[in-house]
Amino acid sequence: MISWPQSRSPLLDSVVLNPVQKEAVVYDEGPQLVFAGAGTGKTRVLTAKIAFLIQEKGIPPHQIFAATFTNKAAREMQLRVESLTGLPLKGLWIGTFHSLCARLLRREASRFGFSPSFSIFDADDQLSQVKKTVRELNLDERTMPPKTLLSAMSRYKNACIQPQTLVEKQGSYFEQELVRVYTAYQESLTRQQAMDFDDLLAQSVYLLRRDEDVRRSYQAHFRYVLVDEYQDTNLAQFYLVKLLAGAGNRVFVVGDDDQSIYAWRGAQVENILSFETVFPGTKVFKLEENYRSTEAILAFANAAITPNVVRAAKTLWTGRKGGAGVLVTRYRDDRMESESVCDAVKAALSRGVKARDVAVLFRTNAQSRLFEDSMRKRRMAYVLVGGMSFYERREIKDCLAYLRLCVNPKDDVSGERILNVPPRGLGDKSRDLLVAGAREAGQSLAELICGNDRPLPALLARGQKGLSELREVLLLLFELVKDNASPHTVCSEMLTLTGYLTVFEGEDSEEAEARIENVNELLNALAIWTEENPSRGLAEFLEEISLASDLDRWERKDDAVNLMTLHCAKGLEFKSVFIVGCEDGILPSRQNFDDEAKIEEERRLFYVGITRAMETLECSSADQRFRFGNLLPMIPSRFLSAVPDALYSFIDKSGYIAQPREERHHAHSLDFGTRQGHRRAEPAPHHEQAFSHAAAPDDFSQETVQYRMGQQVAHKIYGRGKIVNLSGFGDDMRMTVLFNDGSRRKLMAKFADFETL
DNA sequence: CCATCACCACTTTTT
DNA sequence: GTGGTGATGG
C-alpha cells in the first residue's frame, strides 16, 4: 500500500491505494481508461481522482464533469471527495448523465426555444403521449403497438437520429408509420415544453453539435470529463463524452466489460472495448486485485463468467485465502425456496450477521412477492428496492400532475391526466372537445381553461360546472406558485381545493385507506424536502423526483434484509448474498434464449450478482414455479452447470416428503408439475427436516400464528385490544380489532404486526 | 358520464 | 395472479 509521496494534503495521504490505483489517480496526460474488475476499488480510485484534480491540480470543482450511474452514487462520491479535500464542492457537475444533461439543457433552454422549466416525461408519460399520437394519426393500436413504437423511437434517440433525417428513407409499412409517429411525437413534446428521458441525452447532443458557441464554451469550461460504469453507456452518452472532451481529450473513464448488463436499453459494450481506438493515446490501467470477496466466491465468479466469448482478458485475484464455500441449493418449488432462504437468512442473523449486510437478489421483480410473504410471516424486517415505486402510484402521479402543471402549464399529458381527477363531469367527450379547442387556439389545455380571453368550446351542460371549478383551482394554484409558495403548501392547497381525498374517505376499503396514506406520505416528503432545501422550489423538487430511481432512495437499515433485482444490485456489496431463481427461463430469461449475445449478457448479470458477495453466497433453484398463474416445471440454470463442481457444495432439497420411498432423483421428476392450474402445494416442509421425518409432513409453520375471536392482542402502534371479528383464511384473513383506546380497526392478518397474548 | 364486469396479455431488467 | 381495456347498464 502506497500513500501520496508528493502530496501536501494530510487528507489525501489518508487514502490507501495500491500501485496501479495510485498510478491511475496521478496520471494526467491524455485519455485514460481504467478497467476495474468487480470489487477492485474503482469508487475509491474515482473519488481520489476527483480529489486529486481539485487539490493537486487546482482545477475548480465547477470545471469537472463526472457522470455516475445513480444519483445515490453521485451523492456519496461528492461527500467523500468533500471529506477528502475538506472543501465544499458546490459547483461540481456530478450526477447521472440524465441529471447532468437536464442541468445543461435548463441553462441553455433559450437557445432552442424551450423554457428552463420544461417538464420531464417519465416512461408512463411517454406511453400516454405515444398512445395519444397514435390515435391522432388514426393508426390501429394493434398493428402499431405504442410500446413497440416507443422502444423503436428510443433506439433512434439513443443513436441521436432525428426524425427529419428519416423522412426520406423508404421502409416497411411499420417503419414508415414509425417515422410519422416519431415526428408527431417530438412535435407534441416541443409544444408541451417537455423532454423525455431519451431527449435529455439526445437533445444535449443535438445542441452541442449544432451550436458551435455552446460547444466551444463547454469544452473550454470542462477541464475534465469522468465517467463511472462506462460499460453501460449508450451511443448518445458516448457522443456527449466526445463532444464535451473536445480536442484536449481530458477524459477518465472507469468500467468493467464483464459487468455490462444494460445492452437491452441501448448500452454498448463497444464503448469501453473500443475506447483506445476512439481516443488515440489512451493510457490503460487494469485493476485486478479484488478486495471484496473471499477466494472461494471469487473462484466461483471467475468460473461462472469464463464461458463468455466477448470480453477483454482479465483475471481477478485476491489475497484473502479461503472463506466459506459457495452453496448451491435445489428446492422443490418456489415456495419452498423462499421459505428455506428466509430460514437461512434468519439463521445467519442469529449467528450475528447484521440484516443490513444480507441481500436476496432475483432476476425479475415478480419474484419478490414470495420472499416478502415469507419474511413477513417470520416477522423479519426487509427493504424492497425497485418494483412499483412510490412515485409511480396512481394517486401520487395524480398529485404530481397538478404540481407539474403549476410549473409548466403547457404540459398536456399532466393536463389531461387531471382534467377529470377527481371526477368532475369532464369525461372523454369533454376532453376531446377541449383538446380540439386548445389546438385550434394554439394553446395548451390548461392555458385554454384558465385564459378568459376566449370563449370555451361549447360543452355538454354537465361539464360546465366542473370546468369552472377546475379553472378556479388552477388559477389559485398558479397564484400560489407565482408567490413562491412551498411545494408542500401547493400540494396541500390542491388537495383541499379539489377535494381529491374525499372520494377515498367515503370509501371503506383497504385500498382507499392505502391511497390516503400514500398521499399523506407525499405531503410528508414534500415538507421534509422543503425544510432541507429552503432555497429551492417546486420545479427542482419535480426534477429530483423524476430523475431519482428507487435505488436512489434506498437506504440500508440496520435491521432490515435487502431485497432487490440483480440489476439494482450493481455497484453494491453485501456480506451474505442469496441469488434465487437460478433456473433456465429466469436466469437466463427465456426471452433471451435465442441469441448468444443476450445469453452472455444474462451470464454477466449472474456474475454481477455473485461478485456482490463478500463472505457467503448461496445460489438456489426450484424445480417447480408458479408463473402466469400455473405451476411450471423448471430446471437449474445452465450457468450453474457451467461451474466446476469442485467450486461449490450442492444440496438437493427437492425431494418429496410424501414419497419417501421413491428414489431421490425421481422425486423431482416433472410429471407432478405439468398439471395446469394446480393450486399451490401444501405447506412446504422445513428444509432441515425434508428427509428425516417423513411421517410428519406438514407441521411446518405456514400458520404458526393462529388467531381466534375474543383473543387479546398487542399492536406496536395501537396498543392492546381484542379481536372482535374474523373472516377469510390464509393470506386473505381479515380481522376487526377493538383496541383499548376505543378505536376499532380492520386489519389484514398477514400484515398485522402484533403479538398474541 | 361512470361503475362494474369480463377478457386479454403479460413479466425481464430501468435512467 | 395482475392490471389495463372495452362493452354494458345505471
Protein traits:
single chain; 757 residues; alpha/beta; 6-stranded parallel beta sheet; 21 strands; 15% strand; DNA-binding
How far apart the termini lie comes to 58 Å
Indicate the low-confidence ranges by residue numbers. 1-5, 656-706, 728-733
Instruction: Give the total of beta strands.
Output: 21
Task: Please bin the fraction of helical residues.
Answer: 40-55%
Broad shape: globular
Structural class label:
alpha/beta
Note the main sheet.
8 strands, mixed
For this structure, the quaternary state is: single chain
Concise overview:
This protein is α/β, with parallel strands linked by helices and 757 residues long.
Q: Secondary-structure blueprint of this entry?
A:
Blueprint: H1 10-13, H2 19-26, E1 32-36, H3 42-55, E2 64-68, H4 71-85, E3 93-96, H5 97-108, E4 119-121, H6 123-136, H7 146-158, H8 173-191, E5 194-196, H9 197-210, H10 212-221, E6 224-227, H11 235-245, E7 251-255, H12 270-273, H13 275-278, E8 283-287, H14 295-305, E9 326-333, H15 334-350, E10 358-362, H16 368-377, E11 382-384, H17 394-407, H18 412-419, H19 428-441, H20 445-450, H21 461-482, H22 487-498, H23 502-506, H24 510-532, H25 538-547, H26 550-553, E12 561-565, E13 574-579, H27 596-610, E14 613-627, E15 630-633, H28 638-641, E16 648-653, H29 664-667, E17 712-715, E18 719-727, E19 734-739, E20 744-748, E21 754-756
Parallel strand pairs: 1-7, 1-8, 2-3, 2-6, 4-5, 6-7, 9-14, 9-16, 10-12, 10-13, 11-12, 13-14
Antiparallel strand pairs: 14-15, 17-18, 17-21, 18-19, 19-20
Helix pairs in contact: 2-3, 3-4, 5-9, 6-7, 6-8, 9-11, 14-27, 15-16, 17-18, 17-22, 21-22, 22-24
The chain binds a DNA duplex (15 and 10 nucleotides) through helix 5, helix 9 and helix 19.
